[in-house]
Amino acid sequence: MRKIAGAAVAAAMTVSMAATPALAAPADPVKALQKTIKPGRGVKFRDATSLVNDSGTTTFLRRTGKWRFGEKGIAASDITAQVKKYSGGVFNRLYAVDGGRTIWIGGKSWTTHRVDVFSPGDGTFAKEPLGSTGSYTGSYGQLVNPAEPATLKVLLKGRKKGRTYSGKIGYATLRKVSPWFRASMPFGGGAGDAVLTYALTLGPDDLPRKLVTSRQAVDNVPTDGRFQMVTTYTGWGSKVSVAPPPKNRIR
To answer: What is the pTM of this model?
Structure first.
């Protein structure tokens, strides 16, 4: 009887252990991102840049764009910017910030933005001399790119609350880990000790859903206040095509 009872207990324990679900492996957003990085795939984004100071919040730049991945990361982008003009104060100093479109492919770019004092106009493109991702306007856009595994890894070191990670990241770190930052700020991105605060929120798929960054406005123009950039991401891993502008549209 004891042998039978012991066998019954062992069988019951086996059934109980089998019925207990295995603990889920902890989420790894970097691995989730790496799975989406395939040639011909990419992600779309929208961002807005505002000047925040004692007078309130004034949004002056909105951008829509998409990134196309290659074998190792972001290989191309297509970004369209809209600028709302204001008069007075800092906005008089932003004379070179205008709306337009920039296509960037592997370090080369074409833009309808103003290039130095020349503006292509009529929707035609000019070769961007520095090969930047957003021409001059790009330096006012979102400089932190969580679509890069190395950059995302740094952001995930921030303080975690729910699905949001927050902290600070310096230009020096971005120059080291982020090809996108280097391409967007070809002059080096200002002072080496410039720092951005950030809050990155992940979606249920562990991929970036929203990124809010902020930096002193004086890093760009001589004024008080901060520039705040808010970016949202959609369509991770979707098909994305980015091609150079037709030759008949390049001056």
So the answer is: 0.86
- Average pLDDT over the chain reads 86
C-alpha 119: how far from chain center: 27
Q: What is the pLDDT of residues 6-59, one digit of tens each?
A: 554 455 444 444 444 555 556 899 999 999 999 999 999 999 999 999 989 999
